[in-house]
Amino acid sequence: MSHTIEHVSDNLIKITVVVPKDKVLTAMHVAADELSRVMNFPGFRPGAAGYDVVKQRVGEMKILEEATEELIRASLAAALIEEDLDIVGAPHFTMDVMIPGEDLIYSADIALMPKVKKLADYTTLSVEKKSTDPTPEVINTAKKDLARMQTKETRATAGKKLEHGDKAVVNLTMKKEGVVLEGGESQNHGVYTNEPHYIDGFVTQILGLAEGEEKTFALKFPKDHYQKHLADTDIDFTVRLNEIFAIETPEIDDEFAKRLGFEGTAMLEEKLKENLAAENVLEEIRRQERECLDLLAKKSEFDAIPDVLVNQELERMLRELEHSVGENGMELKEYLKSVGKTVAETKLDFTPTALTRVKVALIIREIGKKENIDVDSSKVDAELDIIADRLGEDSEHRARVYEPDYRDFVESQMRNRAVVDHIMKAMVK
After folding, report:
1. Could you read off the pLDDT of 92-128 as tens digits, one per residue?
2. pTM, to two decimals
3. How many alpha carbons lie under 13 Å from residue 134 in its C-beta half-sphere?
4. Cα–chain-centroid distance for residue 113?
């Protein structure tokens, strides 16, 4: 077999492969044997019909077609190994010559894995550590959240007007130019008048209403509203007040702390501080990792990134978004409607991040090779055992954990983690 390579553009090549006719003939005889086994040839047992019989029954071109897939697979793999090429995505094939009795000639357009042209010196770059101690303000907010969880709601007496601090149960309709917004109607919606996250002016408009009263008013949505088609737009609200509840929030004192199982407020604050600090440590590690890798991606230089890599990352990010909104009980289609985005627009928004993520993956790969970072097989075995144990007695899924493909995946993940730890050790000061 022989081959030639043409560089079409950055990271895109065209490789033309010639498979000699003697190898083609050998492959055709193997394909004919297989056809003899799977097809019915009258007068012959399965697999007993010879090449000439199969040829007469199905035609020589059919035999060649059956042989071609394996010929291409083996010959292209040999060419890629010989040239030491690392490819991305699936090749696009063109059959140049496919005639029984002749050399088989085909070409394939192939995207190459881009290289890091200049890796930033991560030993001289740095990311600064931040304190993980919770501030007094954060601790006070946590205490208020605990108190809010212990609030009591008492139905207001007849004739009471809605006051700041009360809870209102309302029917709500929002319209734009007379048309009800998508998701703009809500029945028996709870409004806590002492919370700040409503459209500016909404709570003020409904204060003073009594149960059974209705009010229509207009408010302008914020310029930075997440629904871009509604941002900085006048929206008409119709609110019917169904019920009013007085909210009784307990004082945060020793008695409150005791009801939660603590000796007093000092112990409660200490436990809150401990839990918040633990959360902050995890978040700080994530921030350090993100900033280290983003900084390396920004400071390094790369070959042109093939569209196929960016598109793969965009699809991965879209699946992550679908999973995230699914955990909140929504479908992706429903979520995109709520934010006024199409799938195409969402992908466009994701593109800069997707490009950075591709660059980060290339950097991790490059540093892993440069520093010869690997994972001991015994550690991979131990990790697989942990994963298998989580599956309990499900023997079918447990068996899959130990299959070579899954082992390679876990080993790759562990190697990447080791590389990231190596980077952070050098960069976080």
Report:
1. 999 999 999 999 999 999 988 999 999 999 999 999 9
2. 0.72
3. 21
4. 21
Q: Indicate the Cα dihedral angle 153, 157, 162, 168, nearest 10°.
A: 40
Selection from 355, 356, 336, 337 nearest residue 346 by Cα = 336
> For 322, how many CA atoms within 13 A lie in the half-sphere containing its CB?
10
Query: How confident is residue 10, by pLDDT bands cut at 50, 70 and 90?
Result: confident
* Alpha carbons 278 and 284: distance in angstroms, whole number: 10
CB–CB of 230/181 below 8 Å?
Answer: yes
Enumerate residues 6+ apart whose C-beta is below 8 A from 309: 88, 89, 111, 114, 358
DSSP output for 106-169: EEEEEEEPP-EEE---TTT--B-----SPPHHHHHHHHHHHHHHT-EEEEPPTTPBP-TT-EEE
Strand ranges for 59-145 from DSSP E: 87-97, 104-112, 116-118
Q: Is 321 helix (H, G, I), strand (E, B) or coil?
A: helix
How many angstroms separate the CA atoms of 203 and 197, rounded?
10
Cα distance between residue 240 and residue 381, in whole Å = 63
* CA proximity to 142, closest of 242, 280, 19: 280
CB 209 within 8 Å of CB 166: no
At 231 the pLDDT is 86
For 127, which DSSP code?
Answer: B
Query: C-alpha 358: how far from its chain's center?
Result: 13
pLDDT exceeds cutoff 80 at 394: no
In three-state secondary structure terms, 328 is coil
Spatial distance between the Cα atoms of 260 and 145, rounded to a whole number of angstroms: 13
The answer to whether the beta carbons of residues 9 and 99 sit under 8 Å apart is no
Please state, in angstroms and as integers, the Cα–Cα distance from residue 227 to each residue in 117, 223, 224, 231, 397, following that order. 40, 10, 8, 6, 42
Q: Are 357 and 351 a contacting pair, CB within 8 Å?
A: no
Angle at 410 between CA 406 and CA 411, to 5 degrees: 115
Q: What DSSP designation does 362 have? A: H
Residue 87: CB atoms within 10 A of its CB come to 18
